[in-house]
Write a structure and sequence with these properties.
Length: 103
């Protein structure tokens, strides 16, 4: 579900598969160690195939906890864009919506 990868500029956390209530606790536990990471983090979402409000809340809490260090959501899958749009939260994240080229 979560694969970390260090680049020259930031730490990339790639999420894939279904992010629903059944995975929310696991997502929270996987993201928690990165809250105190000192450099900027990008969460890559191109391979997310399902998303519900429980995991959106986990992503919101993570982004809020990292307000000083920085965190952005990138390469949104169509599913992610659709769910954030339906929840009225696209603007809350303040990240440009760029669909993955594989969409």
């Amino acid at each position: 579900m979560l694969t970390p990868h260090q680049t020259d500029e930031q730490l990339m956390l790639k999420l894939d598969g279904e992010l629903t209530i059944y995975e929310a606790r696991n997502l929270f536990e996987q993201l928690t160690p990165f809250v105190s990471h000192s450099e900027k983090i990008a969460i890559e979402l191109s391979q997310v195939t399902a998303l519900d409000s429980s995991c959106v809340q986990v992503l919101m809490a993570f982004k809020k906890a990292r307000i000083e260090q920085g965190c952005e959501l990138i390469h949104h899958s169509e599913v992610v864009v659709d769910v954030l749009g339906k929840l009225g939260l696209v603007g809350w994240f303040h990240d440009p919506i760029v669909l993955s080229s594989s969409q």
